[in-house]
């Protein structure tokens, strides 16, 4: 619990310092209680559209079909921009996944959230493998082979998110984590739908490059999809509702903009 409190305090501190359109903002944070019984409260942006994972699962269950191309571009552009900013600040997110991407109602705004596993680039935390930190289906191949986390690993996770939104399935699928890890390291990802726009397909392919040094950076994915959004304006909005639940002993309240 003490470790969880430290993670929450660091997360609140980072979110309070950073002001970026696509990063969840913390307006205020404070402790409630003392010692092991203390809890961290954060006053955050109101994101009343739920999280991307819930939206993904809902769409799969209802057989609603793929997301609109404009929405896919907006997800890649928004999170690519957010990660580029985080890396420029000297930090790694280390837990980029659909569940940590929040939306406002009708998806007018898309933000990256949950920085509880974030660490400074070059710090001791960077040496930890993702095996003990994140979600198996987002595991970068270099981490699966015992390597260290890096900005390129965050980029891979963005690639997984992008693939899921574009294809409405995972890039690598297996019945158990061991087989999944082997597929991530050895196999090419599943095929994207044939009607996937060229810029989206290129961004996904670049972000899911097996070799970290050759992998597309989040800033490049942002630039590619943002340029297409400007050239092909569209709403890319969705009518969706959901809720965001913290997994640590942290209590979050939402602040609406006035």
Automatic annotation (TrEMBL):
- The record places the active site at 95
Mind telling me which Gene3D superfamilies this protein's record contains? Transferase(Phosphotransferase) domain 1
Q: Which residues form a coiled coil?
A: none
The location annotated for the cross-link Glycyl lysine isopeptide (Lys-Gly) (interchain with G-Cter in SUMO2) is 97
Q: Which UniProt keywords apply?
A: ATP-binding, Kinase, Nucleotide-binding, Serine/threonine-protein kinase, Transferase
Q: Which GO terms describe its molecular function?
A: ATP binding; protein serine/threonine kinase activity
Protein kinase domain residues: 1-229
Q: Which InterPro entries match?
A: Aur-like, Kinase-like_dom_sf, Prot_kinase_dom, Ser/Thr_kinase_AS
State the SUPFAM superfamilies in the record. Answer: Protein kinase-like (PK-like)
Which positions bind ATP? 114
Q: Which PANTHER family match?
A: SERINE/THREONINE-PROTEIN KINASE IAL-RELATED (PTHR24350)
What's the protein name? NEK4 protein
The encoding gene: NEK4
């Amino acid at each position: 619990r003490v470790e969880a409190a430290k993670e929450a305090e660091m997360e609140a501190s980072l979110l309070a310092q950073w002001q970026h359109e696509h990063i969840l903002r913390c307006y205020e944070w404070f402790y409630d209680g003392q010692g092991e019984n203390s809890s961290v409260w954060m006053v955050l942006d109101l994101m009343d559209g739920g999280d991307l994972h819930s939206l993904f699962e809902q769409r799969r269950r209802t057989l609603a079909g793929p997301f609109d191309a404009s929405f896919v571009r907006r997800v890649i552009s928004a999170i690519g921009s957010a990660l580029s900013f985080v890396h420029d600040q000297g930090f790694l997110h280390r837990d980029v996944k659909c569940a940590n991407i929040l939306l406002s109602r009708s998806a007018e705004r898309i933000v990256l959230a949950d920085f509880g596993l974030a660490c400074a680039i070059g710090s001791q935390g960077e040496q930890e493998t993702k095996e003990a930190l994140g979600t198996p289906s987002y595991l970068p191949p270099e981490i699966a082979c015992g390597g260290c986390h890096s900005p390129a690993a965050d980029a891979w996770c963005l690639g997984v998110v992008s693939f899921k939104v574009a294809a409405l399935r995972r890039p690598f699928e297996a019945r158990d984590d061991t087989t999944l890890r082997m597929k991530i390291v050895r196999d090419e990802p599943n095929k994207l739908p044939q009607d996937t726009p060229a810029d989206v397909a290129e961004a996904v392919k670049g972000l899911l490059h097996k070799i970290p040094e050759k992998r597309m950076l989040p800033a490049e994915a942002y630039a590619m999809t943002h340029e297409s959004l400007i050239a092909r304006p569209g709403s890319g909005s969705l009518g969706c509702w959901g809720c965001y639940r913290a997994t640590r002993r942290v209590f979050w309240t939402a602040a609406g903009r006035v």
